[in-house]
Amino acid sequence: MTETLVPPQDGPAAPKRLFIKTYGCQMNVYDSERMADVLRPLGYATTDTAEGADFVILNTCHIREKAAEKVYSELGKLREMKDARSAAGQGGMTIAVAGCVAQAEGEEIMRRQPAVDLVVGPQAYHQLPELLTRTARARGERIGADFAPVDKFDALPGTRGVDGPTAFLTVQEGCDKFCTFCVVPYTRGAEWSRPVAAVLAEARELAEKGVREVTLLGQNVNAYDGEGSDGAPSTLARLAWALADIPGIDRIRYTTSHPNDMSDDLIAAHGELEALMPWLHLPVQSGSDRILRAMNRKHGRQKYLDLIDRVRSARPDIALSGDFIVGFPGETETDFEQTMDLVRRVQYASAFSFMYSPRPGTPAAGMAGQVPAAVARDRLHALQTLLWEQQTAFNAAMAGRTMDVLFEKKGRHGAQAIGRSPWLQSVHVDDADHLIGRIVPVEIVHGQQNSLKGRLVKQKAVHGA
After folding, report:
1. Alpha helix locations (H) across 332-372?
2. In sequence order, what are the beta bridge partners of 119?
């Protein structure tokens, strides 16, 4: 039941309704969960629609194409809801813009859309109750974007909501890489890692609430160097070993990684730490050395391929995922073919691929040689066709195998349940909804492009049972 700060004299008030729309990455998904946690003591319960909500938050991402325009379009719809709600005497609607667009364009958002009540950058979510109170009283500052990450995590509630046996756990924020296409260093700030003790404390709480699998998050998660118990910087590998010692935490994943931060001990952990799942998201962006230099990726094509070989040597069954940008300024057909060749060599189990689009304030936005949109679209189609073929083949090869599946939620049909394989595939199994939260052996019947179909492995009867 949701708490309220001051319950009325004639009984508890109905919870206020909170709607959060999340754009973009898994970091934003995590941040949205924490915003809901921060606001829960104020009497806010989450709802699935903006209509009728008392408080609406758009948690934005600046990475995707036309990100800001999409936010303004959504704000226009919310303004109409807000006006209609007020005209009908149904009370007010508070509108907030959070995330990277808020950080980058806070003042402009307030100027262009007066219906917005407050703007909150990625490091200031712990200030939401104060900012909301100030807004409700129609006074005080409305923008809270410039706070250090340590303040953010120290001020977040000690408890968080959990929905199912898997959870995201942020361990690192920010980026020092300054890829020429990316706004993250400007909106999330410098790399910063949470202390080991704080991460372990949150993980223990999650385990106590039934979480079996944690995915460690960071803009450059494998650059993690949080303070350890001895006062010295830790590594992501050492953190993973410590997390695996927590009773109940059976599976560990991490994302997103940078090739330059794949340390020897992290590669070794993939072969030695049973809880570390055989799945690695390692973006490369391009297969062309010339384009990689223009992107300021600080690694070359061969270094990436050599790294993949080392990871596969440590863990032969590991599945690889990647990120690709096509149509980067100056990209030629030869550059693009080198990307296609790299994809053929690596054989990805999954991948994300996008057309390049300029981000205001990034070096690439002003580069010469902008690739025509029609050319970039054709290249993206060719790349995605190849990636889809590889993903489909990877899933199809699972047919006939038996693997441990962590069941997460009910499926759409009857007693069906949906779980995750060690390789992050979605697995659909009939008559398994009673197994949610458990890790169970499943025989894969067949694989499709986006999921696997499985059946429970029949257990042999025990004599005397």
Report:
1. 333-346
2. 97, 143
Mean per-residue pLDDT, 440-462: 86
User: 291 with 331: CB under 8 angstroms?
Assistant: yes
Token pair 């223009």 in the structure block, residue: 294
Is-above-0.90 flag for pTM?
Answer: no
Integer Cα distance of 125 and 34 in angstroms: 8
Q: Which helix (H) or strand (E) holds 352?
A: strand 350-355
Say how many C-beta atoms besides its own lie within 10 A of residue 274's C-beta.
9
Beta bridge partners of 22: 59
Number of C-beta neighbours around residue 404 at 10 A: 15
CA max distance for the chain: 78
**Residue 248: how many other CB atoms lie within 10 Å:** 14
DSSP lists the bridge partners of residue 216 as 169, 254
Structure-block tokens of residue 340: 């296609």
**Rounded Cα gap, residues 175 and 98, in angstroms:** 19
Tally Cβ neighbours within 10 Å of residue 7. Answer: 11
More confident residue, 30 or 316: 316
Q: What is the mean pLDDT of residues 52-76?
A: 85
Confidence of residue 6 (pLDDT cuts 50, 70, 90): very low
Q: Residue 388: in which H helix or E strand, if any?
A: helix 373-396
| CB-count exposure of residue 339 (10 Å: 0-12, 13-18, 19+) | buried
The contacts of residue 14 (CB under 8 Å, 6+ apart) are: none
Tokens, residue 349: 């189990």
DSSP annotation of 354 reads E
The Cα–Cα gap between 297 and 300 comes to: 8
3-state helix, strand, coil in the chain (%, to 5): 40, 20, 40
CB 214 within 8 A of CB 243: yes
Strand bridging mode 192-193 / 172-173: antiparallel
Is the distance from CB of 171 to CB of 217 less than 8 angstroms? yes
Task: Give the separation between CA 272 and CA 266, rounded to whole angstroms.
Answer: 10
Full strand arrangement of the beta sheet holding 319-326: 279-281, 319-326, 350-355
Q: CA-CA distance, 345 to 284, in Å (whole number)?
A: 13
DSSP codes joined into one string, 201-218: HHHHHHHHTT--EEEEE-
Range name among 49-63, 250-264, 279-293, 335-349 with the lowest pLDDT average: 49-63
Q: Which residue has the tokens 């025509």?
A: 372
Q: Are the beta carbons of 427 and 444 closer than 8 angstroms?
A: yes
Q: How far is CA 374 from CA 3, 131, 381, in A?
A: 54, 45, 11
Distance in angstroms (rounded) separating the CA atoms of residues 171 and 216: 6
